[in-house]
Amino acid sequence: MQPAHPTSASPHSDGESFDEWLTTPLGRYVLVREQQLFDQTLPDLFGFYALQLGAAAAPLMQTSRVTHRFTMAWDTPAQLVAEADQLPFAENQFDVVLLPHTLESQALPHEVLREAYRVLRPEGHLFLTGFNPYSMFGIKRYLGRDRRGPWGSEFISLARAKDWLTLLGFDIVAARLACFNAPTHSERSLERNEWLARAGERWWPFAGGVYFLHAVKRVAGVRLIRPDWARGSRRRRVSAPLPTRSPAPAPAPQHVATDARHARHSPHRT
Q1: Among 2, 59, 129, 250, which one is most buried in terms of CB atoms within 10 A?
Q2: Which residues sit opposite 178 in a β-bridge?
Q3: Cα–Cα distance for residue pair 65/50, rounded to 1 Å
Q4: Residue 258 has pLDDT above 90, yes or no
Q5: Looking at the chain, which runs of residues are DSSP E strands?
Q6: Which of 164, 158, 176, 172 is nearest to 218 (CA)?
């Protein structure tokens, strides 16, 4: 791990890093909508350590209640600088890990996910965002000539990201899509086409420009350990003898009592 300092931009970005692209009108449009998704989920999670790997300039963890929060990057200034596929942490260290468009800029995205799984504690939470290749953002990526910022990276589909997470041992908690607007560079055009975004959420929800994934790390054989006082009280309840009750005498059969009365009043009794 190295101290945080500016480094050269990604070789796929033509001199513009993803953090720099987030300051453009389209980048701010994407960031605002992704921030809303994080703000809706992070406040419900608690823990001691959280890590945001990538997009260090974006305050995505601003609503998190985790005690200690760190940002890490590999090509831009951050609190920590390290390679995304070789995290300098021991296993089971973090309660929450964020990967905002991290996989798209990595040569080995599956290894990045493997590292995220390793440093997460059991039942830890992973949040992942990415650009949807089956959207207008994907069309711009494949047909456009612009290779700055995210356009020079490899878009990973939502289905593929889910498959990778499942194979590693994650359970998918939620998946959402956002940014249905046309990916234009003009802020005025983005505002004018906002009706297109509202229509997309209703009529083609699968074609959002970005997706948001929430997954939980599951470990086989891990079970919740109850505190000693809870286990002790349970043992006392189980070991206590059950109260017993003497069985009530069985009532005499009705036909026997009837025969005895008939015999007592019968005139032929000897």
Answers
A1: 129
A2: 210
A3: 10
A4: no
A5: 2-3, 49-53, 68-73, 80-81, 94-100, 120-131, 170-178, 210-217
A6: 172
Structure tokens at 257: 């009592």
**Residue 192 phi/psi, 5° resolution?**
-65, -35
Residue 172, by phi and psi: left (phi above 0), alpha (psi -120 to 50) or beta?
beta
Q: What is the DSSP string of 163-196?
A: HHHHHHTEEEEEEEEE--S---S-HHHHHHTHHH
Helices (H) and strands (E) in the chain, counts: 9, 8
**Cβ atoms within 10 Å, residue 100:** 24
The pLDDT tens digits for 160-181 are 999 999 999 999 999 999 999 8
DSSP bridge partners of 71: 52
Distance from C-alpha of 197 to C-alpha of 140, rounded to nearest angstrom:
16
DSSP SS3 for 116? helix
Q: What is the DSSP letter of 214?
A: E
Task: Determine the 3-state secondary structure of 260 from DSSP.
Answer: helix
Q: Please, where are the H alpha helices in 64-223?
A: 109-119, 136-143, 158-168, 187-192, 194-203
Q: What is the pTM of this model?
A: 0.75
Pairing of strands 120-131, 170-178: unpaired
**Pairing relation of β-strands 94-100 and 80-81?**
unpaired
Tokens, residue 128: 């992942």
Q: What is the pLDDT of residues 117-149, one digit of tens each?
A: 999 999 999 999 999 999 999 999 988 888 888
Picking from 64, 36, 34, the residue whose alpha carbon sits closest to that of residue 49 is 64
C-beta neighbour count of 64 within 10 angstroms: 22
